[in-house]
Write a structure and sequence with these properties.
alpha+beta, two-stranded antiparallel sheet
């Protein structure tokens, strides 16, 4: 599920950025648990981008930083 959702969301963000001729320099994720606890991570990119793959890879790195098992 993580892979499919992250790819889809990354593509949506990338398409919107390209349509607006904009780029981002920061990627952030927020996860909400079933008890409505939020967990956030963000990272600065080395250069601004509108490339789906770069957005996706950055988001995956942020997911990897979260301890999804231990809370």
């Amino acid at each position: 599920i993580k892979l499919i959702d992250t790819v889809s969301l990354s593509e949506t963000v990338g398409m919107r950025l390209r349509a607006d001729q904009a780029k981002i320099s920061c990627v952030s994720i927020t996860l909400r648990s079933s008890d409505f606890e939020n967990r956030n991570r963000q990272m600065q990119l080395s250069s601004a981008t509108d490339v789906t793959e770069e957005i996706y890879v950055s988001a995956c790195r942020l997911f990897d930083e979260l301890d999804l098992e231990g809370g």
